[in-house]
Design a protein that fits this description.
This protein is α+β, with helices and mostly antiparallel strands and 269 residues long. Helices cover 22% and strands 28% of the residues. The protein has helices spanning 31-37, 43-51, 113-116, 118-122, 147-154, 176-182, 219-226, 257-266, and strands spanning 29-30, 55-57, 60-61, 68-69, 76-78, 81-83, 91-96, 128-130, 138-144, 162-169, 184-186, 189-191, 195-202, 205-212, 231-239, 242-243, 252-254. 30% of the residues are buried.
């Protein structure tokens, strides 16, 4: 829910000359209708947001009621957070079960992500997954038909963090975290984690949390094995600001407006 007490950033900035392109009457959609369809607020509340200078289109604050925009091309932000307004875009969080391949089809007939979204694909949605999880790893996988966002989320230059919970062999001793943060030499070059935390230790095993933005194949398993603690179970719990939460394995959920906006922000879209 939006708080109507919060002022917009750059509250006093007037629209720039290179701001939103005005469409002729009858073309595009009214801005308040677009905001309502995106789930931001009712049309009346959207009008108040515009009046308060909290809505930005194509880089400029809009105060004009009834401005018509092209929802397929306009970049709309409310309180600085980008709003996705294109009807055909799909953003899903999947809790990939253990044993499933991170592919939309599998030539060997093994269970795969495509099986879980088969009905959506048959209905015409062209979905693809953002990154991969190996078959033995479970947890958060994003699915979308937004190619620009997917490409940037997978690109290492944007350094979108990913969080994992790993059960490892052995009781992890103090000093392992520093070693992983400083960097470990692997077969394909050095790698390091951003954060490392030991959550539980006992009975010859440990539960650890690993946060990193590396995207190389099996990177978490390889890093932990390199420091003497092979992984026995691995779950990805977060991608950037999107959290798995208590979502059950094999289930899908539609990402919320704020989650999508933060993903866009993380990759400078």
């Amino acid at each position: 829910m939006l708080s109507f007490a919060k002022p917009a950033r750059h509250q006093n900035v007037e629209p720039e000359e290179n701001g939103p392109k005005k469409l002729p009457w009858g073309e595009g959609e009214r801005l308040q209708k677009v905001l309502a369809k995106a789930g931001v607020a009712s049309r009346r509340a959207a009008e108040e947001l515009i009046e308060q200078g909290r809505v930005e289109v194509d880089g400029a604050i809009v105060r004009e009621q009834g401005l018509r925009i092209d929802p397929d091309t306009a970049v709309v932000r409310v309180d600085g957070v980008r709003i996705v307004v294109r009807d055909e875009q799909v953003y899903l969080a999947l809790n990939k079960p253990k044993g499933y391949q991170s592919t939309m089809s599998d030539e060997l007939g093994r269970p795969c992500v495509g099986d879980i979204v088969a009905e959506r694909v048959m209905a015409g949605q062209r979905l693809f997954h953002v990154g991969r999880l190996d078959a033995e790893t479970e947890g958060l996988l994003l699915l979308t038909n937004d190619g620009d966002l997917a490409h940037r989320l997978m690109h290492p230059s944007f350094e979108v963090s990913k969080t994992y919970l790993a059960t490892v062999q052995g009781e992890v001793q103090r000093g392992i975290g520093k070693q992983l943060r400083d960097g470990v030499e692997l077969d394909d070059g050095p790698a390091r984690v951003d954060k490392f935390q030991v959550l539980e230790v006992g009975e010859g095993k440990s539960l650890v949390k690993v946060i990193l933005h590396e995207g190389r194949k099996h990177i978490v398993r390889r890093l932990l094995e390199a420091v003497g603690h092979p992984v026995t179970a691995l779950v990805r719990t977060n991608i950037g600001s999107v959290a798995l939460g208590d979502q059950r394995p094999g289930t899908l959920r539609v990402l919320g407006r704020d989650e999508i906006g933060k993903l866009y922000e993380a990759v400078a879209l």
